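Ticket opened by: R.M.
Priority: normal
Category: complex prediction / small molecule

The reporter submitted a protein together with zinc ion and asked that the result be attached to this ticket for the collaborator who will pick it up next week. Submitted input follows.
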Amino acid sequence: MAEAASSIFGGVFAAFASRFCTAEEQVAYAPEHSVRTSARARRISLRVLPGKGLEVVLPPGADPARVPEVLQRHRQWIEKHLGRLRESQPPAGARRAPHEFALLGGRELIRLAYKNTNPQALAEKRKQPGPLTDPAPGIRSLYLPFSPDKDAPALIARALREWLREEARSRLGTQLHSLALAHGFHYTRLSIRYQKSRWGSCSSKGGISLNACLMFLPARLIRHILLHELCHTRVMNHGQAFWKELFALESDALDRDREMRRAWKHVPAWVFME
Ligand SMILES: [Zn+2]
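Result attached by the on-call engineer:
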């Protein structure tokens, strides 16, 4: 079922192409877009979605020749939402291995100690990434058995991703478990993934998947996403019943939801380095 996994973003930017909009444009406006016919659609609608961009959804029998006119008429809306999508996308990467990065929206700094560059790390001669003695409160040292001068940045990024995945599994897992316990939710399993388009999802069987990139976000946004996915174990869609559940647990859920549009700014470029 297509709706089995519901995304945080799904439908957030959806808006109906209203025939009451009267914006007039002389120059042909042709942004990049895809067109799809949906059996459930009642009228032509526009959507701007992460990973997909602008999508025009036609009801059965609608004439595709009408699309240019619809794009033209909704130019302002399209530009606004494409702009917002660009802002919310993962940053394009500089191909350099990081020396430090921040978790929890800057609350926790991870300082990297590479092979041959840190006397303490050298003395330990370890083969696996792992913690060193923390230099100060809020700063953690992480040893990486790589040399930033000799090893490819992509190789280092991969090792960091694996480290962060385990970190996320343990810390997000603990938080999800205690939120579920506190509010009487039941989920069947937790998986941690790296995704560019969604922060979490919940399957119809109650399995929750969380994006490891959540670890970069401020604690209030992490909690928001965890609660959002837990609410899906009771309500699979984003309808009224869903929001009622969420508001009962988080009165400022709408503010958090709005804040999520810019959440990618917390995620460093190396995360998606290939
Ligand atoms: Zn959702």
